[in-house]
Structures are given as structure tokens and as C-alpha cells.
Write a sequence for this structure.
């Protein structure tokens, strides 16, 4: 439409239309005749005499549209109503789709010459493994605290359930050279974990360094009970798991002793934690992770590692480097022919596999006066360590400033170890048995 036509349309809409000319007026005046000037003046007077809203019919029609001041006001009101309605609809659509987040906002890249837009996505880091996830992938656990479970490693408790899903596992002797696992779950929390056993005070030190993670155990040493109540520790056992529907149960298909038959539901444990008011997560000191695959390429090779915590036998921990996956496959104990027994999950048959293997040497002590000969490990302080990564071995040290601080590992140059993003297995071995960790 031309500018002139637009101007004419607007003029016709807003300007009054004079249609109440007396019948016959001007019919007999030829073009260019000025004799009508007086009559026109009379006509204007006639118009002014008319009453607003009164209809003056013409000869040729029964009814015509006549201009009145009210008609102009009505048009203006109609226009305002239309404009207000359109604005209201647009505002509601903005609230519904943009404000609510149903439409993803995109940010223009000011450095882009094409003016194209890109969706801004946030990366979520697993505090235990360093693995990266999108917000959508991590939405079920990103704001959860780690869940620790004391997992039985007696020969009658094998194969265990749910250990393959743990992000971080500590293996330490509980008593008599028999190791026990403290498995922490964050990315995946399985419905079946176990068999579950009691805890010791030094395991709780490891719980505290993960920003007050929750822990599930069945039973405790006298020292652990004091720690739970006074430090305090978020104990799901003390919090009522045994009376919480579906949280724990017993099963004994292997016909073993009662203490090897307890299992827990990881999802129910998290529900119980919420009921206890333990929602949310704390600030965990995250390890340093590397992206350089050749970071430790110049270190000695170590493709097979055997760890005898006390003696070689049923509780030895053996790892084989899997070059294809750049991981370590775990075995526990030996069969009758002396071959390592792959450590597999009861339900899936999957072998335990980790990205990072750490051996931490710690001073072990017997608790004076303990009638059952319970042990204690000096986890606060410093000492030697070995880090197995990328098929290599790195001589290292460890340091833990206080009970609630994270244990940090350093190379011999004092630089913090940079781990691979993935699962961890940390074996805590008496420092008197450094020579019982063999690798080649």
C-alpha cells in the first residue's frame, strides 16, 4: 500500500464523516459556481443547530449513518480495547513459554560474524570421579550428598551386590586381616547393596572428609558409636533404616552365617536421608583431574598389581591393567590353582573396574584394652603412597590436615596428582607392609 493510501485510510478512520447534509443540497449548483457560499454558511448554521444523536433521513434511504460525537468516542474505545487485548495476550504468552523456561533462551555470540546463536549448557562435575555430565544427565544426583555403605568382604559374603556401581571404594582391614569396603555412591545408587556389615571409627574419618556424607552400616564398634553421636556422623543405621519400609532385609541363598546376609536398598536409604532432613550437599574438596593422556608416560610401567594387606591369600587384592579401556580390573583372593579370582557383581556378573588405583600406606595400631582386638588407622597426618594410572606407577605421598579435610596425594616433586576422570579404588595398607605391594 502506498503512503498516500495509508494516509487516506487513517484520515477516513479518525475524521468525522458528515452525512447529515439536508436532502437536495447542492444538487443544482454547477461546477465552479460560487453562489453557494452564502447557502453553505447557512448550511453550517443548520448543522450546528442539529441535536447530537438525532437522525436526519435522506430522500433516497430509510436510514443512514450519521456522525455524532458519541460515534467518535465509541471508535476510540474499540481501538483501545483491541490494543489492550493484544498486549495482554502477548504478555501471557511470554509468561507461559519464556519466563517458565519452556522455550530455551539462546545467547548471541558477540564475536560471531554470522550472528548465529548457540544454546548455553552447563556442565556438572561428579565430586567423587571428576566425570562431566550435562544438567539433564545429572539432574537425579547433582544436589545429593554421597552415600557410603559398609560392604562385607568375607569369603562367605562373595560375590557382593552393587559394588560395581560405586564411584569410590576404600578397602581397609577391619579385623584379623579381613578387609572391608566402604563404598560411596553418587552417580548411580543401586536398589541392592550388600552384604552390609558394621563400621569402625577410622571408616567414619573417611566419611567426614566427604563433607558429611551419609553412611549405612549394621552395627558399630564402641569407638564408632561415640564418633557417630559426638562428631557427629550422618548414620542411616542410627537414623532408623531397620524400621524403614523396604530399607533393609536378609537373604541367605548361600546358607552362610547370619552376619553375611544383610542387604540394603540404596534408593530407600536416600529417601530415609531426606526424611531425616539430610537433603542437599556440602562442599567437597574435589581432586585434580587431567586431560593430558601422556601426563605420566615417562613413569615406570605397572600392568599387574597385587596387594597383600596382611598376608597373601583370600583377602589379597589383585588388579590387571586393561589397556583397551585404560582401566584396572579387580580380583580378590586366589583359586585352588593359585589364579586370581575376578571380583564380580552378584546380579550382573560384571567385574569391578576402576580408572584410578591408589595404595595409601598408613600406621596401623591395636586399640589398647579392646577385648575383640579391634584396630585403628592413623588417617590424619601424612605418609607414602603409590598411584597406578594409565598403566604406570607414580611414587607419591599423602597428606590429611585434619579429620574433616580431604586426603590429598602428591608426586615426589610436591605437585598434586592429576587423576583420570572415573572411578577410584583406594587400598589403605599398613605401612609396615610396603614391600607386600608388588607390581610389574
Amino acid at each position: 500500500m502506498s503512503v498516500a493510501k495509508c494516509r487516506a485510510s487513517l484520515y477516513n478512520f479518525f475524521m468525522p464523516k458528515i452525512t447529515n447534509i439536508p436532502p437536495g443540497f447542492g444538487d443544482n449548483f454547477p461546477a465552479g459556481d460560487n453562489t453557494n457560499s452564502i447557502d453553505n454558511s447557512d448550511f453550517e448554521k443548520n448543522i450546528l443547530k442539529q441535536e447530537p444523536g438525532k437522525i436526519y433521513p435522506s430522500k433516497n434511504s430509510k436510514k443512514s449513518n450519521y456522525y455524532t460525537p458519541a460515534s467518535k468516542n465509541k471508535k476510540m474505545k474499540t481501538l483501545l480495547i483491541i490494543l489492550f487485548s493484544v498486549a495482554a495476550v502477548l504478555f501471557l504468552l511470554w509468561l507461559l513459554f519464556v519466563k517458565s523456561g519452556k522455550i530455551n533462551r539462546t545467547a548471541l555470540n558477540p564475536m560471531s560474524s554470522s550472528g548465529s546463536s548457540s544454546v548455553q549448557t552447563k556442565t556438572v562435575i561428579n565430586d567423587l570421579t571428576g566425570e562431566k555430565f550435562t544438567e539433564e544427565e545429572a539432574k537425579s544426583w547433582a544436589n545429593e550428598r554421597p552415600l557410603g555403605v559398609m560392604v562385607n568382604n568375607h569369603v562367605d559374603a562373595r560375590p557382593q551386590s552393587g559394588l560395581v556401581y560405586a564411584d569410590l571404594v576404600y578397602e581397609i582391614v577391619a579385623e584379623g586381616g579381613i578387609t572391608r569396603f566402604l563404598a560411596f555412591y553418587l552417580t548411580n545408587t543401586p536398589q541392592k547393596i550388600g552384604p552390609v556389615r558394621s563400621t569402625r571409627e577410622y571408616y567414619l574419618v573417611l566419611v567426614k572428609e566427604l563433607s558429611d556424607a551419609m553412611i549405612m552400616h549394621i552395627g558399630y564398634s564402641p569407638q564408632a558409636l561415640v564418633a557417630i553421636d559426638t562428631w557427629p556422623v550422618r548414620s542411616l543405621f542410627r537414623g532408623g533404616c531397620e524400621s524403614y519400609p523396604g530399607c533393609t532385609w536378609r537373604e541367605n541363598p548361600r546358607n552362610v552365617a547370619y552376619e553375611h546376609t544383610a542387604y540394603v536398598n540404596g534408593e530407600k536409604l536416600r529417601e530415609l536421608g531426606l526424611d531425616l532432613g539430610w537433603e542437599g550437599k556440602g562442599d567437597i574438596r574435589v581432586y585434580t583431574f587431567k586431560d593430558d593422556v601422556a601426563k605420566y608416560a615417562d613413569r615406570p610401567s605397572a600392568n599387574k598389581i597385587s596387594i597383600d594387606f596382611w598376608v597373601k591369600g583370600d583377602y589379597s587384592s589383585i588388579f590387571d591393567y586393561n589397556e583397551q579401556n585404560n582401566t584396572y580390573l579387580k580380583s580378590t583372593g586366589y583359586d585352588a590353582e593359585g589364579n586370581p579370582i575376578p571380583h564380580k557383581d552378584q546380579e550382573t556378573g560384571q567385574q569391578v573396574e576402576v580408572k584410578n588405583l591408589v595404595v595409601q600406606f598408613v600406621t596401623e595400631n591395636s586399640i589398647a584394652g579392646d577385648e575383640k582386638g579391634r584396630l585403628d588407622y592413623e588417617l590424619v597426618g601424612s605418609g607414602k603412597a603409590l598411584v597406578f594410572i594409565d598403566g604406570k606407577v607414580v611414587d607419591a605421598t599423602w597428606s590429611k590436615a585434619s579429620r574433616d579435610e580431604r586426603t590429598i596425594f602428591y608426586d615426589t616433586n610436591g605437585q598434586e596428582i592429576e587423576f583420570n576422570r572415573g572411578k577410584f579404588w583406594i587400598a589403605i595398607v599398613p605401612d609396615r607392609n610396603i614391600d607386600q605391594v608388588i607390581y610389574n
